[in-house]
Design a protein that fits this description.
mainly alpha, 6 helices, 70% helix, 121 residues, two-stranded antiparallel ribbon, 2 strands
């Protein structure tokens, strides 16, 4: 009986440790994503605003884009954000900066595949 309680205690402890690691990993990921968003907002704002022509992004903007976690950042794009930025310009900046994005990646209300198809239509 004693050994079964001991095993149960160790299993419970192991589950708590794994849960703690997973939770702290999610927090670290969320913090990293927030840093990506802040970096993109400060370094790339001029290249994705709705108003004005499409302009080649700066080296500073591209440096941030290349490091960004695209799925995480795209998951944060809301209708309100889309009212301020041009998703076409966002995709242009990503492509121009050499950011590899999986086909079909959805960002806000648009997917990368639809954007690239629109270039040829």
């Amino acid at each position: 009986m004693e050994s079964s309680r001991s095993r149960l205690s160790w299993v419970a402890l192991a589950v708590l440790v794994v849960a703690g690691i997973l939770i702290s990993g999610e927090q670290a990921s969320a913090i990293s994503c927030q840093k990506d968003v802040i970096g993109l907002a400060t370094k790339c704002k001029d290249f994705v605003e709705k108003e004005g022509p499409i302009v080649k992004p700066s080296k500073d903007c591209c440096a941030v884009v290349k490091k960004a976690n695209v799925p995480c950042v795209c998951s944060l794009v809301t209708k309100q954000i889309e009212d301020l930025i041009s998703m076409e310009k966002v995709f242009y900046v990503a492509k121009t900066c050499g950011k590899k994005v999986s086909p079909g990646t959805k960002c806000g209300s648009m997917s990368f595949i639809l954007y690239f198809l629109s270039l040829f239509l």
